Each structure stands twice: as structure tokens, then as C-alpha cells.
């Protein structure tokens, strides 16, 4: 019944997503050929600008992720039902849901209005959106811990804070680090998109080149973004393998 329901939803949403006009990909083949030809001839004249903006994008993602971890750790602990009372868990989970439900692009627009154009708006947007995501993941990791170490610390007469420090954190630290590294990878891509609204990084340069139909420069920018994100993914993957 579930798969049948999914099939029905796909069928009734064909018109909604305009899927029947997919043939335009082939009827406008000449435009696609011209676009592809320019993409195959990347223009590296401004490569230093592109690399510096890509580095700025990575720094936006790095600071956004760091602030998100700083916010996500206490929120994740407060949202875990096995260590926090229900009167704390419920409002914290509402806050987590609110932060996760607002796209980082919308948050970026709000912060551009608040602090002006530039990378700070991107950092704050990524930090709040990622904090909501990490807090949920952190809380779920805490809820799945082994109760034995916590009860052992409690048996010594240790206060609640020591139970968390010595019974909870050592169990979830590797998983938390893996979640944080994964979000840093995702934020490196999100920071590129945030540049389209003036929140710093290489996205603004990409947007300008696209508006100027300078597809050769767009190709060079895309190559730099792909290389940078691939290197980040490889580094993150190597770190996760050592932790897990």
C-alpha cells in the first residue's frame, strides 16, 4: 500500500512539476550546445580572484559550523529525553524545529538586512540553520547511549554535570564529530549558494558571471568549487574513518 501510494503521488504530480515539458531539453538543443561549448573552454584569467573567493567561502562554512557546534551541543543535551526533564526538552525541540525549518537562504536574506552585505551574514545564517540540524542529531545520539556508564558515575555520588561529562560525552563524542564534519561538507556547498544573495564567498562572483553570460568564466568557477568540495570531502572522510 505504501509503494502504491507513492506511485499515485508521482502520477498526480506530473503536471505540478511540469514534467511533460522535459522535451524542451532537446528542442532547445542549439542553446545547450552553445552553453556546453563555453563550459568546455574555461577562462582562467581571474583564477586568483576565484581561488580567494572560494577560500572565503570555506572560511564562512568553517565559522558557521563552529558556531553551530557551540550552540548545538547544549541544545542537543537539553533536547535528550533520557537526561533532561520534559519541561526543558519540549521548548528546546520547538526551537530546534524552527531553526531547521527556515532555509539558510532565507536566514541569509534576514541577516543581510540586519548586518549588511558580506560574509558575516553568511556565517550567521549557516550557524543558526546548522545548529538546529546538529542539535537534533546530537540529541538522538545521546538518547541511544548505553545507560551503564551513566549509572556507574551516578553510583559514585557524582552530580548531574559529572554524569554528562564522564558518562555521556565519551560515548557520543566520535558520533558528534562525524555529524559535525558532515555538516561542514554540506555547509561548504551552502555557503556557495549564499553568495548569490550577497552573503559573501564565490557565489556572488558566480552570479555576476552568469548574468553576464560569461559561461567560460562560470566553467572555471565551477571547476574550482568542485575541486575544493572534493578535497573537503576526502579530508572529512579520512577523519571520520579514524574516529568511528
Question: Explain this structure to me?
Answer:
By secondary structure, this protein is an all-alpha fold. The protein contains 11 helices and no strands. The longest helix is centred in the last third of the chain and has 35 residues.
Q: Descriptors for this entry?
A:
244 residues; mainly alpha; globular
Low-confidence regions: none
Structural class: mainly alpha
Structure annotation, total helices:
11
Beta strand %: under 5%
Number of strands: 0
The helicity comes to: over 70%
Q: How are the secondary structure elements laid out?
A:
Blueprint lengths: L1 H11 L11 H4 L1 H11 L7 H32 L7 H16 L2 H12 L3 H25 L3 H9 L4 H35 L7 H10 L3 H29 L1
Please outline what is shown here:
The protein has 244 residues and is mainly α.
Amino acid at each position: 500500500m505504501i509503494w502504491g501510494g507513492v506511485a499515485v503521488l508521482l502520477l498526480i504530480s506530473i503536471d505540478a512539476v511540469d514534467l511533460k515539458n522535459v522535451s524542451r531539453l532537446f528542442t532547445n538543443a542549439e542553446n545547450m550546445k552553445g552553453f556546453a561549448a563555453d563550459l568546455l573552454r574555461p577562462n582562467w584569467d581571474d583564477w586568483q580572484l576565484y581561488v580567494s573567493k572560494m577560500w572565503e567561502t570555506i572560511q564562512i562554512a568553517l565559522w558557521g559550523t563552529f558556531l553551530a557546534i557551540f550552540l548545538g551541543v547544549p541544545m542537543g543535551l537539553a533536547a535528550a529525553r533520557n537526561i533532561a526533564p520534559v519541561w526543558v526538552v519540549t521548548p528546546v525541540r520547538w526551537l530546534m524545529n524552527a531553526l531547521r525549518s527556515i532555509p539558510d537562504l532565507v536566514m541569509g536574506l534576514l541577516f543581510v538586512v540586519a548586518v549588511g552585505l558580506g560574509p558575516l551574514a553568511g556565517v550567521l545564517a549557516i550557524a543558526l540553520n546548522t545548529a538546529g540540524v546538529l542539535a537534533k542529531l546530537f540529541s538522538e545520539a545521546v538518547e541511544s547511549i548505553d545507560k551503564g556508564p551513566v549509572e556507574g558515575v551516578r553510583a559514585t555520588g557524582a552530580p548531574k554535570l559529572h554524569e554528562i561529562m564522564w558518562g555521556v560525552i565519551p560515548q557520543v563524542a566520535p558520533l558528534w564529530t562525524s555529524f559535525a564534519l558532515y555538516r561542514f561538507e554540506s555547509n561548504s556547498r551552502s555557503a556557495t549558494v549564499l553568495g548569490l544573495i550577497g552573503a559573501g564567498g564565490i557565489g556572488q562572483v558566480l552570479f555576476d558571471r552568469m548574468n553576464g553570460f560569461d559561461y567560460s568564466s562560470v566553467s572555471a568557477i565551477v571547476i574550482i568549487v568542485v575541486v575544493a568540495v572534493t578535497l573537503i570531502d576526502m579530508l572529512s572522510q579520512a577523519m571520520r574513518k579514524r574516529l568511528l
